Amino acid sequence: MLQTLSFSNEANKRWDTVEDGKSVAAKILETKRIHTLDLSGNTLGVQAAEPIAEALKKHPELKIAQWNNLFTTRLNTEIPVVLKSFTDAMIFAGTRLTTLDLSDNAIGPQAIHGLQDFLSSEACFGLKNLYLNNCGLGSAGIRSA
Hints:
Elements: E1 3-6, E2 14-15, H1 18-30, E3 34-38, E4 43-44, H2 46-56, E5 64-66, H3 78-93, E6 99-101, H4 108-119, E7 129-131, H5 138-144
Parallel strand pairs: 1-3, 2-4, 3-5, 5-6, 6-7
């Protein structure tokens, strides 16, 4: 049976270290079949993202990625690195998303190229809903997406 795994708004949890990421990754790995992964409302750094990305590689059945408001207080240099590690993990797993919500993240034009590669991959061929509201993409970013 497919499940929703939610870490949404865990008191605006700040995941900075590899250890922080391992605690999230452990819960992802414990869940046999994840339909929806909701990380919204927390803040994720590069080091913490590494074990989470590794866990994502074990879940090709993932359909919905709710990752809005995930990078509050993060540098604009961190966001592209985290997004690339997550999207590469989903491509590796053979994930076929139907919904990707990255709203309310300061993605900006610096990260759109990595997302563009993901959006044109097989992982997004069945994508029905793409939410990029309030991401600071600008006109060039919107054209790319």
